[in-house]
TrEMBL record:
Protein name: Histidine kinase-like protein
Entry GO MF terms: protein serine/threonine kinase activity
Domain of life the protein comes from: Bacteria
Keywords per UniProt: Kinase, Serine/threonine-protein kinase, Transferase
Species, as recorded: Actinoallomurus bryophytorum
């Protein structure tokens, strides 16, 4: 068995490698991919275009048996990434999955880093029963310290020069999930625009958010997604929360923030809004749809009420 071999089992093997350049990258990636091809597995490589060129050159004709995806698009934001992996798994039933992943996300803020860290942790829980091996590649020369902490906390195994080994820094997904949501959201700035929401007819709300979004230079595609997401959040607050329901919006760091609060309190269970809902069940599309539409969705709920904050870049 090679250093990258996986013993026969039917559970997820989620590993990370902190490489130091092309040589160490290819020394780990090529045997990992070839082993999957020789075993008849469905082999996926989610990598930047430049890396695909190098892998194709190293693999030769065998590269044609791989499925390549562009990491920049695949890692647009966490919920879409989970949905993409779910779709790939569904497209290959009864086949072991093998994925080489080079996360292409570009987190700009601590909140974005926290959400991507949560994504890596959710993978261990959401796909625990999937027969798959995933190797996530991170360049140790470029990785920021807080991103590195997230990598170490979310991968049960690490791959080094001698092969895979247990990662003592790994943390239970429930602990990682709770830690992301533990800090309170930053306070609403005093110049935020506010609108009370007291009717299920949300035309006025859409006009309120749409007007501020256009002033902020939001593209038409982003605006459509934001209005759909805001309508869903506000509708849920009116139907299931408690008054007062208020929508606030402001600009922050080039992004537009839309914040909807209500006086209700609920206890999220499982992975609320991170996994594609069962298409045969009508309920459960709301928060998942909101997360699919907005790159960053933050949720806090407690005795004083519920706060859902949407953050979108102009483009």
């Amino acid at each position: 068995m090679s250093p990258h071999s996986d013993s026969p089992h039917t559970r997820l093997v989620h590993r990370a490698m902190l490489h130091s350049g092309d040589e160490s990258y290819l020394a780990a990636a090529i045997p990992f991919l070839v082993e999957g091809l020789e075993a008849g597995e469905a082999v996926l490589a989610v990598i930047p275009a430049a890396t695909e060129v190098r892998l194709r050159h190293a693999l030769g004709a065998r590269a044609d048996a791989l499925e390549f995806r562009d990491a920049a698009h695949w890692y647009s934001h966490p919920t879409r990434t989970i949905a993409a992996y779910s779709s790939f798994i569904d497209d290959h039933p009864a086949t072991r999955i093998r994925a080489l992943a080079e996360p292409g996300w570009k987190a700009r803020t601590p909140a974005e880093i926290a959400e991507w860290t949560r994504y890596e942790s959710i993978v261990n829980q959401a796909f625990a029963d999937v027969d798959a091996a995933v190797l996530c590649m991170y360049d140790r020369r470029l990785i920021a310290p807080d991103v590195l902490d997230g990598v170490l906390h979310t991968h049960p195994e690490l791959v080094g020069g001698a092969g895979p080994h247990v990662n003592d820094a790994y943390r239970d997904p429930h602990a990682v999930y709770a830690e992301v949501d533990r800090p309170p959201l930053p306070p609403v700035p005093p110049d935020a625009r506010a609108m009370p929401v007291d009717s299920i007819d949300l035309c006025a709300l859409r006009a309120f958010v749409g007007g501020h979004a256009e002033d902020h230079g939001i593209t038409s595609a982003r605006l459509h997604d934001l209005l759909v997401a805001t309508t869903e959040v506000a509708t849920n607050a009116i139907r299931h929360g408690l008054p007062p329901v208020t929508c606030r919006t402001w600009a922050d760091g080039g992004d537009l923030v839309v914040d909807v609060t209500d006086g209700g309190h609920w206890r999220p269970e499982g992975l609320p809004g991170f996994l594609p809902p069962d298409p045969l069940v009508r309920a459960g599309f709301g928060l998942w749809g909101v997360r699919m539409l907005c790159p960053l969705v933050q949720l806090r709920t407690g005795p004083t009420g519920t706060d859902i904050r949407l953050r979108v870049p102009p483009r």
